[in-house]
Write a structure and sequence with these properties.
Elements: H1 18-37, E1 44-45, E2 66-73, H2 77-81, H3 86-95, E3 105-110, E4 116-122, H4 126-135, H5 137-147, H6 154-157, H7 188-198, E5 203-204, E6 207-208, H8 212-219, H9 228-240, E7 245-248, E8 255-259, E9 264-265, E10 276-282, E11 285-292, E12 305-306, E13 309-310, H10 314-318, E14 321-330, E15 345-346, H11 358-362, H12 378-381
Antiparallel strand pairs: 1-15, 2-14, 3-4, 4-11, 5-6, 7-14, 8-14, 9-12, 10-11, 12-13
Helix pairs in contact: 1-4, 1-7, 4-5, 7-9, 8-9
């Protein structure tokens, strides 16, 4: 098979103009290359390079390629395991976007009786919106007005100097809209870095590590208490143990996998899943969704029950949503990469999160003005 000509935008969205598509390809390609290289061995031991991870635009994908979808639950597990009851965890998860750390965030709309009428979910990484804002700021405004509110003004989204503000009044809460991810670990850079780090096979004291928790503890590529990080790492490492070359499928992104409505009941007996609507992304790569009941039905989301309990929180729905990424493995059985025989060590221990961000954005620095970068290793040190 031939090399990929250029990385496409998440969800194969058509928001970019030609200039934006070039910038996006440069960003993803360079971020992958940085992840392949791994951290500076003078700062981090036993974590570089990652020879089994590759860039789709610079290396062929062999004919034996297989695709592997890796999915996990959208509800934040850290909140679940530190709460004393379902109501408490639902309240906590609905209270702040900063705790919605499974690459899925949401915002809830209620009527004047406090009944939920709509919950909107997003899994779009912030980097996409930053590139779009640099290359086509008017498009950003149009999309906010379409998906969030017609009252959005340019000054709500951009600083006086014209810099896009990812956390703005329309994208910083669980009640005033959710355009894209803002929780600090929910980035595409973190996804790419985690996947690359997990391609390192580890044989410690003569035993190859295979379980989710021992791999993440040794590789230090995320938070072991999450649903996402250990599961992604274990899924990728399972491919690596087949001595394969591995990458993330194009278009690189986080996507909605499914909504399960088992145990849900509506007042009129209609199918509860029929009120789940995808709003952005193509058929295989959905990045925005909403759960809402049309007004003509005569009831609201809050009138639907899950296991006999009315929906009072958006997080009750998040319990039943799964998010996914897709890996590619090829040249199975042909990799000559040797496993690491030790676990990752940080030198010094207080290595800043920004250590791997400059290179990630330098690729499109020739196209765009300098600006703060989104960390690609935030989940490694959280």
């Amino acid at each position: 098979m031939t090399k990929l000509e250029a990385y496409g935008p998440p969800g194969n969205l058509d928001d970019f103009d030609g200039f934006g598509r070039k910038a996006w390809n440069a960003f993803i390609s360079n971020t992958v290359d940085t992840a392949v290289k791994g951290p500076d061995p003078n700062e981090v031991l036993h974590d570089s390079p990652r020879p089994q991870f590759y860039n789709l635009t610079s290396a062929d994908t062999a004919g034996d390629a297989i695709r592997a979808a890796i999915s996990w639950t959208a509800f934040p597990r850290i909140i679940k395991i530190t709460s004393s009851s379902d109501v408490q965890r639902w309240e906590r998860a609905d209270a702040s976007r900063d705790v919605q750390d499974e690459y899925c965030e949401w915002s809830v709309v209620r009527d004047n009786t406090n009944t939920i009428t709509q919950v909107t979910f997003t899994c779009e990484g912030p980097e996409y919106w930053e590139v779009l804002a640099e290359t086509n700021p008017q498009k950003v405004i149009e999309l906010y007005r379409h998906h969030i509110s017609p009252d959005v003004r340019p000054e709500d989204l951009f600083s006086p100097t014209g810099r896009y503000q990812p956390r703005n009044k329309w994208n910083d809460s669980t009640s005033h809209g959710a355009m894209h991810l803002v929780q600090r670990n929910n980035t595409l850079g973190a996804e790419i870095e985690l996947a690359a780090a997990a391609t390192i096979r580890r044989v410690v004291n003569g035993t190859e590590l295979t379980t989710e928790q021992e791999l993440i503890a040794c590789g230090k590529y995320g938070a072991p208490e999450r649903n996402s990080d250990p599961h992604i790492g274990a899924g990728v490492n399972a491919l690596a143990r087949q001595r394969a070359d591995i990458t993330l499928a194009d278009p690189v992104g986080l996507y909605f996998d499914d909504l399960s409505t088992d145990g849900w009941e509506t007042p009129d007996g209609s199918d509860p899943k029929s009120y789940w609507t995808y709003l952005r992304g193509d058929t295989e790569h959905r990045v925005r969704a909403a759960y809402r009941v049309p007004p003509e039905k005569g009831f609201s989301v809050g009138d639907i029950t899950i296991a006999g309990r009315p929906i009072r929180f958006g997080s009750q729905i998040a319990d039943f949503i799964t998010i996914k990424l897709t890996g590619i493995a090829c040249r199975l059985g042909r990799s000559t990469a040797e496993p690491q025989t030790s676990c990752v060590e940080f030198l010094p221990a207080d290595m800043p999160e920004e250590a791997f961000t400059a290179e990630a954005f330098s690729a499109y620095g020739n196209f765009l003005d300098p600006r703060p970068a989104v960390s690609s290793r935030s989940s490694r040190v959280a």
